[in-house]
Amino acid sequence: MPDVLVIGGGAAGLMAAYAAASYGARVRILEHNEKAGKKIYITGKGRCNLTNDCTRDEFMREVARNPRFLYSALSALSPQDMMSLMEENGLPLVTERGRRVFPASYHASDVTKTLEKMLRRLDVEILFHTQASHLLTEDGHISGVETADGHRLSADRVILATGGLSYPSTGSTGDGYRMACEQGHTLQPLFPSLVGVDTREAWPKELQGLSLKNVRLCAKQGKKVIYDELGEMLFTHFGISGPLVLEMSCHLPDRPEEAALSLNLKPGLTPEQLTARLQRDFDAQPRRRLRSMLEGLLPQRFAALFPECIGLDGEKTCANISRQEREMLRASLQQLPLHILSRRPFSEAIVTRGGITVKEVSSQTMESRILPGLYLCGEVLDVDAHTGGYNLQIAFSTGYLAGMSAAQSD
Questions:
Q1: Which of 171, 182, 155, 165 is closest to 343 using CA atoms?
Q2: What is the pLDDT of residue 387?
Q3: Which of 11, 124, 320, 361 has the fewest CB atoms inside 10 Å of its own CB, making it the most exposed?
């Protein structure tokens, strides 16, 4: 019966501990917070979108980085397995739009409570207020963990499930990256992901709080299209956010200012159809001011601001709009440029992009290829996905595979 230490009591760590104990290991979790699952409590705006009821192939399409690395993990614990596991342990679930799965109570705390109940049944010990500091090795194999107060805890296997850098208020310190790198692992550059962006343009800030639905956001790096999707976005005090922007942020280059954005406010119309629509509106109301006429196409606040955004006079009457100005208006409605200054900080990011390179970790077991007996899972790895329950499922699946493998390893 192997002794397994799990560093981190978040989604990946709790599931890793459950799997290891289920397969017969003696398991202890080291958690530096006063309670487990602090990040789980804030996911899905406190409701916890714990997974997505989709097929494996559909899941892979939502993974922004290294999706193929997840095949074995998702085979070990699929979204449907996760749903069954929760319901079998007394947590009713509901599935919403986009196949997003939540606890029926819509309380994220119920997910953590269910996981903790599962661990208690298996006699898993959680050591709170215990900060792991360094991994211990002996003869090229993991041998335990040294804590911040100098204590040495021995173990046959160690599972590193420390999370990333996103939401540092939950205790995400990046210590797992340091501990892995001390043993020779390689760290891919870290960036905030699933996060809003600051814009060079000032006008989005004037529209703070305005949400746009059924618009298309396109991002290019040079001539290459790196993102092009239809959906909903939000103007904020710093620039832009909302579902489209969060998803786009997964695909931005390391230097986000290298990406050129364009916003199609009327994606349902062809250029010819929009030109004809504008001409009809101008002909029907020649004395109406441009900004007033645009209220038929845009929300009132945006209509009042839009002409100045593109260099037109909003007080000009429709009869005095030239053909060239009308074409400028049409083009801007369907290709409004935006320029990124920067990503928003880790304190606002849902996940961390980057992490320990997956080439140094076995996708079959989650065991380190560099240090035998060390397993890595969750956000500490260079794997991240779009919103919709995918990132939590990655944590659960990689954690489960790591725990199962650690318990069964010779």
A1: 165
A2: 94
A3: 320
**pLDDT for the residue 99:** 96
Name the stretches of the chain with pLDDT < 50: none
The residue type at 107: H
pLDDT tens-digit map of 345-359: 999 999 999 999 999
CB 384 within 8 A of CB 250: yes
Q: What whole-number distance in Å separates Cα of residue 193 and Cα of residue 195?
A: 5
Let me know: does 124 contact 17? Beta carbons within 8 Å. yes
Asked if 389 and 194 count as a contact pair (C-beta separation under 8 A), the reply is: no
Q: Find all residues with CB under 8 Å of 372, minimum gap 6, and list them.
A: 140, 141, 142
Asked if 235 contacts 205 with a C-beta cutoff of 8 angstroms, the reply is: yes
Q: Which is nearest to 385 in space by CA: 374, 398, 367?
A: 398
Bridge partner residues of 114 (DSSP): none
Using CA of residue 392, residue 5, residue 170, residue 251, what is the dihedral sign?
A: negative
Half-sphere exposure of 211 (CA within 13 A, CB side): 6
Q: Which two tokens stand for residue 244?
A: 């489209």
Contact 144, 136 (CB under 8 A): yes
Strands 26-30 and 125-127: parallel
Structure tokens at 325: 């100005």
Residue 167: predicted pLDDT: 73
Determine the 3-state secondary structure of 164 from DSSP. Answer: coil
Query: pLDDT at position 172, please?
Result: 75
User: Between the CA of residue 299 and those of 21, 207, 229, 266, 294, what are the distances in Å?
Assistant: 56, 10, 21, 12, 8
